[in-house]
Amino acid sequence: MKRNVTTLILCGFLLLGYTNVHAETFTLPELPYALDALAPKISKQTMELHYGKHLQTYVNNLNTLIAGSPFETSDLEFIVKNADGAIFNNAAQLWNHALYFEQFSSAPQSQPGGELATAIDKSFGSFDNFKEQFNKAAAGLFGSGWVWLVKNEDGSLSITQESNAGNPLRSGQQVLMGCDVWEHAYYLDYQNRRNEYINAFWEILDWSVIEKRL
Question: Which of 15, 57, 149, 193 has the most CB atoms around it within 10 Å of its CB?
Answer without folding.
Answer: 149
